[in-house]
Amino acid sequence: MTNRWDGFDEVVAVADAGTFVAAAKRLGTSTSHVSRAVARLEQSLGAQFFHRTTRAVSLTDTGRTLVDQFRRLIAERDEAIAMLDLQGEPQGQLRITCPTALGERFIAPIVRSYVQEYPKLSVDLDLTNRVVELVSEGFDLAIRTGTLPDSRLIRTQIALRGIVTCAAPAYLAENGTPQSVDDITQHECIIATSDVWRFRNGNEPESLRPRGRLRCNSGAAVFEAALAGMGLCQLPEFYVNRAVAEGQLVEVLQQHRPDDDPIWAVYPQRRHLLPKVQRLIDTLRRELPAALVQGCVS
Fold it and tell me: Tell me: the pLDDT tens digits for 62-90?
């Protein structure tokens, strides 16, 4: 009986590797097996997937159309098989999206160790501050912070991050130190990605819209501007705690510091049982809180 999957893996491997020889090495089989499997599938479907020359292999128009479909079907097949063995080794491709600064400093090192632990796993880590649509863009997992809108996605809290309002000593010496949240309106503020600064007044949350001449979507750039004495800033503590500990910045309104922001792992429901997703979430929940603390004080 003919295997309905015969040739799918081989076509994708040739498309990705660029040659039949490289595809065979990737699949751990012989070049002749790959060549025969591709030829059988081409004959079965009545279509040619590759232009073949003595020096190179390239996809035909039909091949370009079908290889993406084959890749999706293979991924879904592998996911279905993986769901049958929840204790199985993470394998296949894992696509993750994460905010840039959090990803560069903390998520990427954890993911790098995770990939090294599981040799059958490959990871695509996309660092962006854009809110990615997980299902339509084909991502398995997102790392997100703060309050999340209701959705059909599943979320698991993996850590917390503190929020600090601070300024350089020279700025405070010249402009005074705010004693209340309302005093912020009298100060020059360096504004990051959020237009609203959050505080706590007793047991109640409080917020205001700061005013300032400098706005930047890079937390690192806002931090540098605060060090230069350009005004107050409100940033996640991993940016500023070392500078506060060394006296380069001074935390203000500490009694009004807002509640810590949750950090979430967010994922589509159909993927939540996959070992490659579940084990990474477990790893992040175990390692990220300590990494954030170490990153703040180092």
Answer: 888 888 888 878 777 766 666 555 566 78
Ramachandran angles phi, psi of 213, nearest 5°: -90, -10
**Quick one: 20 exposed, middle or buried, by C-beta within 10 A (0-12, 13-18, 19+)?**
buried
pTM over 0.90: no
pLDDT digits (tens, 9 = 90+) for 14-54: 888 888 888 888 888 899 999 999 999 888 888 899 988 87
Residues 48 and 117 in one domain: no
CATH assignment of the domain containing 282: 3.40.190.10
Task: Report the number of secondary-structure helices (H) and strands (E) in the chain.
Answer: 11, 14
C-alpha span between 87 and 161 (Å, rounded): 31
Q: What is the DSSP letter of 180?
A: S
Query: What would the pLDDT profile of 109-133 be if each residue is shown by its tens digit?
Result: 999 999 999 988 899 999 998 888 8
Contacts of the segment 243-251: beta carbons below 8 A, 24+ positions apart: 243/166, 244/164, 244/166, 245/297, 247/169, 248/168, 248/169, 249/166, 249/167, 249/168, 249/169, 250/166, 250/167, 250/168, 250/169, 250/172, 250/177, 251/164, 251/165, 251/166
Query: Contact 232/189 with Cβ under 8 angstroms?
Result: yes
Does residue 5 register a pLDDT over 80? no
CB atoms closer than 10 angstroms to residue 87: 6
pLDDT value at residue 3: 58
Q: Is the dihedral of CA 77, 81, 84, 89 positive or negative?
A: negative
On whether residue 74 sits in a domain, the answer given is no
Number of domains in the chain: 3
Range of the domain at 217: 163-256
